[in-house]
Amino acid sequence: MSATRMLSVLCAAALFGAPIAAADSSAARVKEIPAFGLGTWLSERDEVAHAVEYALQNGYNHIDAARIYRNEDKTGRGIAASGVGRESIWVTSKLWNYDHRDAEAHAAIRKSIEDLGVDQLDLYLIHWPVAFVPGEGTKLDKKTSLVDTWRTMEDLVRAGLTRHIGVSNFAKRDVEAILDICTICPYAHEFETHPYLQQQDFVDWHREVGIKVIAYSPLANTNPIYHRGLPSILEDPFWEKLAEAKNATVAQTILAWGLARDTVVIPKSSSEKHLDANLGALDIKFTDEELKEVAKQDKKVRMSNPGKNWGVKLFIDLDDPSTESSNSNEEL
Ligand SMILES: NC(=O)c1ccc[n+]([C@@H]2O[C@H](COP(=O)([O-])OP(=O)(O)OC[C@H]3O[C@@H](n4cnc5c(N)ncnc54)[C@H](OP(=O)(O)O)[C@@H]3O)[C@@H](O)[C@H]2O)c1
Predict the structure, then answer these.
(1) Contact 268, 215 (CB under 8 A)
(2) Is the pTM of this model over 0.90?
(3) What local confidence, expressed as pLDDT, does residue 48 receive?
(4) Which GO terms describe its molecular function (predicted)?
(5) Looking at the DSSP assignment, which residues form a beta bridge with residue 39?
(6) 219 in contact with ligand 1, CB cutoff 6 A
(7) Is the CB of 251 under 6 A from ligand 1?
(8) CA of 7 to the centre of ligand 1 (A)
(9) How far apart are the C-alpha atoms of 26 and 28, rounded to whole Å?
């Protein structure tokens, strides 16, 4: 890692905690979520282990996993093969919809821990604010409320299975319902946000209430299952021009903007070239004028909304144009 890159990682550490291992192991534990992580959704089972191993050996220290990605065992192999100490890696996983009940949640987190090959998780998220009846497909579980599930999540912390808990894909009112009752409160909220779905007010509100924002799909519609009808953001003339001015790639510039607004970014890649290049985002800064121009580029386009498949209205009071071309995440 270059000296400039190391300095940038340390600057990000000042914002988000310490992502870099120090010599003393007790001091080295990753205390807060690192600002830059590796996504693993749609990472092929025969590619993800190498991607994780390569990433951890080349500057990454944060892996975003989930049981529903069906690759946590291979992700765990990558973590082990990297040779990087557990104390230097932040590992997030997520509770799937059919595991919201108490017994299922305990079994699910234990399975994720086993597959990922770790002692405990750093962060465990309720993947969606939707509970299915266990063993009955996508039949909605009307008996298990989000508050019930949150109390179960708190038990997982008390049992030492995860250091922190959080939510994902929640509407503001769902987060507020948790804040009203929590004794261990949400550490982070992972949701879709990128230049085409900025949701700045929602991001700002999380800062006010002390919940970190993890920006998923930080490269907007670069994920190939998204918005086949919308031109790739990587070819968007606004971003091409801004990237040129920074002497950077469009992907690096977009990720740098995610960091500049104090969100944690977790781009997925299985390519060594992209894994290396994406870290270059840590070296890019913006002027206030540039940030104002980026704010004008919000298209308010949501890429991911499986609620349509589940018969659930998600993202209440948030940007969700639910266009015909919007992807409904059949993969999940
Ligand atoms: N909580 C949730 O419900 C939720 C939902 C969606 C995503 N997530 C998390 O967020 C992560 C990231 O989101 P995402 O996977 O949807 O989208 P993304 O990270 O924004 O985009 C991933 C796509 O971009 C490509 N890519 C990466 N770097 C690139 C570069 N420098 N140049 C060109 N293409 C590049 C990747 O291909 P290559 O592999 O070929 O590089 C991949 O196809 C997921 O993997 C997952 O961990 C969470």
Answers:
(1) no
(2) yes
(3) 98
(4) oxidoreductase activity, acting on the CH-OH group of donors, NAD or NADP as acceptor
(5) 64, 268
(6) yes
(7) yes
(8) 25
(9) 5
